[in-house]
Please model this.
Amino acid sequence: MRQEGSLARTHEGEPGLPRGRARLPEADVRAAQRDRIIRAIIGSVAKNGYAGATIADVVRRAKVSRAAFYVHFSDREDCFLAACQAGGRLMVGHIVEATKALAVDASPEQAIRVACRALLDFIVTEPEFARVFYVEMAGAGQRAVDRIDASRRRFAQMNRIWHQRAMATDPTVPPVPEDAYAAAVGATTELVRAAVHGGRFDRIREMEDSLVALHLALLGGKPWGPAANAT
Model:
């Protein structure tokens, strides 16, 4: 059975937060409650879809009271958007940390490969969040769609930074129109979304070469690998 990611790990079957003399300081209690609730809604939406996820299911998974839920969030949508934001930050942070670990003389292709690998590794290790982010979020209302657009702009900016550095180190890398950065994000998102929607997590890491070739073709002026090899 596929292991759940840490972002969806809930506390079903475990004790609630300690009470009485063992009670945590109030600030720690609130932080623990929020963390439990965020993980719980990711797990609930991944299993039931956004439309089928309920506050009752979330508090059951989190082992907190309904009153505690409303201390932190005004409603289900508010909670869901907070969870998507938290997971999205972790995903971006995972990619950034991976690229920061590169040697200073790493080639542009090495840099984009490490970034694509980090993205795919995160998706494989956090499959429930991946389903929430790539599949469920688009149907969760206008505020969620706005968050998706903001996320894509963030990834497009990462592509812009990579491209500018690539042009500075490799004279064969051409200028590209601004829309190319977003186009690379859109193509990557659709390929990943289709795999996540189909539950093909065992093949996610196999997408690395295709994503690297896609970025190099769109942003680096390089021929698509498989097509070039076929000639």
